[in-house]
């Protein structure tokens, strides 16, 4: 699914004073591309995803998904949005949370993963019949990721989905998610504060300026997959992004 954002601006007017979050933001993501978004806290990264997911309406500019309005694509269940808040149904077990997502997904039995496979992917196969309130924060986030994968959407909008995970689990899921993406090739917009994570996963990394957020620049990641973060080429991309991020924030 191709994502096109043109002259996008957004302001939150319910605060005093009003908060101008995004301004003159333009970007295009090709179908099947994995694009990471980095930037300072409050620069509008999460707001951008919410606008694309049709959870907010832009004050100015336009967003199209395969040439159509976001409302039309979300209604056809082609978009999945995963936030930092797991938002699980507490009265459902882990298995039932995933099964519910599959019932709402577009019919595609040829690629839909079994519930057990998804639970195994996030290392929760021994907690299939447990309820989310008994889980740690990291476990809840892992279940939320499995539920998102169960939707089999064409566009994944991911807002720091690994932020609450410990380092080893985060690294393992990053590798497995990369394998899933290569098999299914959805379009992915991935918000993160981790530059190494962005380099490991994405085709391109977009750098957003401090509020109001604009596109400052981008770095193409032309490394073979899977990527090893100890190679000189990997570290070169990390340094390039750190330098661009510092310049975008006006830091020396």
Descriptive overview:
With 252 residues, the chain is α/β, with parallel strands linked by helices. It folds into two domains: 1-75 and 153-252, P-loop containing nucleotide triphosphate hydrolases (Rossmann fold), CATH 3.40.50.300; 79-152, no CATH class. It is built from eight helices and nine strands. It has helices at 45-52, 70-75, 94-104, 115-121, 137-150, 167-184, 195-201, 232-248, and strands at residues 3-12, 19-29, 34-39, 60-65, 79-82, 155-159, 187-191, 204-208, 215-220. The strands form two sheets. Strands 5-6-7-3-8-9 form a six-stranded mixed β-sheet, sandwiched between helices. It has a three-stranded antiparallel β-sheet with strand order 2-1-4, covered by helices on one side. It is globular and about 50 Å long. It starts with a strand and ends with a helix. The mean pLDDT is 89.
The rounded distance between the terminal residues' Cα atoms is 38 Å
* C-alpha Rg (nearest Å): 18 Å
Order of helices and strands: EEEHEHEHHHEHEHEEH
Number of individual domains: 2
Mean pLDDT: 89
- Structural class, please? alpha/beta
Question: How many E-type strands?
Answer: 9
Report on the biggest sheet: 6 strands, mixed
**CATH fold naming of the largest domain:** Rossmann fold
Residues in helix, %: 25-40%
Fraction in beta strands: 15-25%
Unreliable stretches, pLDDT < 50, 5 or more residues? none
How do the strands line up in the largest sheet? 5-6-7-3-8-9
CATH architecture of the largest domain: 3-Layer(aba) Sandwich
What is the CATH class name of the largest domain?
Answer: Alpha Beta
Principal-axis shape:
globular
Q: Give the number of helices.
A: 8
Instruction: Report the CATH superfamily of the largest domain.
Output: P-loop containing nucleotide triphosphate hydrolases
């Amino acid at each position: 699914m191709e994502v096109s954002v043109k002259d996008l601006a957004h302001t939150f007017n319910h605060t005093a004073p009003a908060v101008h979050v995004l301004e003159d933001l333009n970007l295009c993501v090709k179908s099947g591309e994995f694009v990471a978004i980095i930037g300072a806290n409050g620069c509008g990264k999460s707001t951008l995803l919410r606008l694309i997911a049709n959870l907010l309406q832009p004050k100015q500019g336009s967003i199209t998904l395969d040439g159509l309005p976001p409302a039309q694509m979300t209604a056809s269940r082609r978009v999945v949005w995963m936030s930092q808040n797991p938002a699980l149904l507490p009265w459902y077990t882990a298995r039932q949370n995933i099964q519910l997502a599959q019932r709402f997904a577009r019919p595609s039995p040829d690629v839909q993963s079994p519930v057990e496979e998804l639970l195994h992917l996030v290392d929760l196969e021994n907690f299939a019949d447990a309820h989310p309130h008994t889980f740690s924060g990291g476990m809840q986030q892992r279940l939320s990721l499995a539920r998102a994968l169960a939707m089999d959407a064409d566009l994944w909008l991911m807002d720091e989905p690994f932020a609450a995970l410990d380092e080893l689990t985060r690294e393992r899921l990053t590798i497995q998610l990369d394998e899933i993406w290569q098999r299914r090739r959805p379009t992915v917009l991935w918000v993160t504060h981790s530059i190494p994570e962005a380099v490991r996963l994405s085709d391109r990394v977009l750098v957003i300026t401090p509020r109001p957020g604009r596109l400052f620049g981008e770095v193409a990641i032309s490394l073979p997959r899977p990527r090893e973060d100890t190679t000189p080429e990997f570290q070169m991309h990390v340094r390039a992004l750190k330098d661009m991020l510092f310049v975008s924030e006006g830091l020396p």
